[in-house]
């Protein structure tokens, strides 16, 4: 179901750090409302929701978070419009907080004290959802390459077909969104369009790019389902991973991954160009899954 046209979209995070008496989360105080809540804020026009979550935490607390598993979204009415706030669990350490008109104080608090301090019940419920899951998860990102023109109009070897101007712009935007999950090893189809899709992210994160024929179209390994087995092998390493591949291989990869993690695969595993799945794992199990487009 499509979002209503006047939806107010916002994002934020429950940011955790180790404390002397157990984990602590950071809360912000807003003088305008005299309330205590989690850092969050509205998305800018054209801004990816992952970028919104990271930016808002940084602006309100001075902390640059690393996003983890997805938490339940919250919806409520504001100024006669529906507002939805998407949240992630996150990790972070002390930043350089500067009081401003929106947030004048921040505090790291142990979970029981944070629950007592929070002003709104929906934030208390969010904290309980956060506490019920693992403190840390490992992200496995499965990305379909961005726009690369019409393959029927490309006369050369299809392995060499590059991104078009739209695809290059999409790849640049994706780098900012994907960076929210922190550094990851980068594996990609050997095709030019997949290599070019991950290049901005790799450059931003200082990561090496490794091509893997198992994730490439038009090869015997891809045709023999080697892609799914290779992805399952990567899951066993339990390292943050970004894999860029082709739309035709995505359902196989997601299906095999969910099977290996003891989970039911999504009803529709397909991705549009520039779309990506994020599988958050912990202890060899699938903790949460989220689907994004590059818009």
Whole-angstrom Rg: 20 Å
Number of domains: 2
CATH third-tier fold name of the largest domain: Rossmann fold
Structural class: alpha/beta
Amino- and carboxy-terminal Cα gap: 17 Å
CATH class of the largest domain: Alpha Beta
Task: Name the overall outline.
Answer: globular
**What is the H level of CATH, i.e. the homologous superfamily of the largest domain?**
Phosphoglycerate mutase-like
Task: Please describe the structure with a list of short key phrases separated by commas or semicolons.
8 helices, Nucleoside Triphosphate Pyrophosphohydrolase, 6-stranded mixed sheet, Rossmann fold, 7-stranded mixed sheet, globular, 295 residues, alpha/beta, 2 domains, single chain
Characterize the structure shown:
This protein is α/β, with parallel strands linked by helices and 295 residues long. It folds into two domains: 8-132, Nucleoside Triphosphate Pyrophosphohydrolase (Alpha-Beta Complex), CATH 3.90.79.10; 138-292, Phosphoglycerate mutase-like (Rossmann fold, 3-Layer(aba) Sandwich), CATH 3.40.50.1240. The protein is built from eight helices and 13 strands. The strands form two sheets. Strands 1, 2, 3, 4, 5, 6 and 7 form a seven-stranded mixed β-sheet that branches. A six-stranded mixed β-sheet has the order 10-9-11-8-12-13, with helices on both faces. α5 (192-205) links the parallel β9 and β10. α4 (165-178) packs parallel to α5 (192-205). The longest helix has 14 residues, at 165-178. The radius of gyration is 20 Å and the shape is globular.
């Amino acid at each position: 179901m499509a979002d209503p046209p006047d939806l107010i979209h916002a994002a934020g995070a429950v940011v955790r750090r180790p404390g002397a008496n157990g984990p602590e989360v950071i809360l912000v105080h807003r003088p305008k409302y005299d309330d205590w809540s989690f850092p969050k804020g509205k998305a800018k026009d054209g801004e990816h929701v992952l970028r919104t979550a990271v930016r808002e935490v940084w602006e309100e607390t001075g902390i640059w978070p690393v996003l983890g598993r997805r938490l339940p979204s919250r919806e409520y009415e504001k100024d006669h419009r529906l507002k939805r706030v998407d949240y992630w669990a996150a990790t972070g350490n002390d930043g350089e907080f500067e009081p401003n008109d929106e947030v004048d104080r921040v505090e790291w608090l142990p979970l029981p004290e944070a629950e007592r301090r929070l002003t709104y019940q929906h934030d208390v419920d969010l904290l309980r959802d956060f506490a019920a899951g693992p403190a840390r998860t490992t992200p496995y990102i499965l990305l379909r390459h961005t726009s690369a023109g019409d393959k029927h109009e490309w006369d050369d070897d299809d392995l060499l077909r590059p991104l078009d101007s739209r695809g290059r712009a999409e790849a640049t935007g994706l780098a900012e969104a994907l960076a929210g999950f922190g550094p990851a090893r980068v594996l990609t189809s050997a095709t030019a369009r997949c290599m070019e899709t991950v290049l901005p992210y790799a450059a931003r994160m200082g990561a090496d790019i490794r091509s893997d024929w198992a994730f490439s179209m038009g090869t015997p390994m891809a045709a023999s389902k080697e892609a799914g087995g290779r992805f399952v092998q990567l899951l066993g390493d339990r390292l943050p991973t970004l894999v860029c591949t082709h739309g035709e291989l995505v359902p196989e990869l997601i299906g095999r991954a969910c099977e290996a993690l003891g989970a039911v695969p999504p009803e529709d595993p397909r991705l549009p160009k520039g779309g990506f799945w994020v599988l958050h794992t912990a202890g060899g199990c699938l903790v949460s899954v989220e689907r994004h487009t590059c818009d």
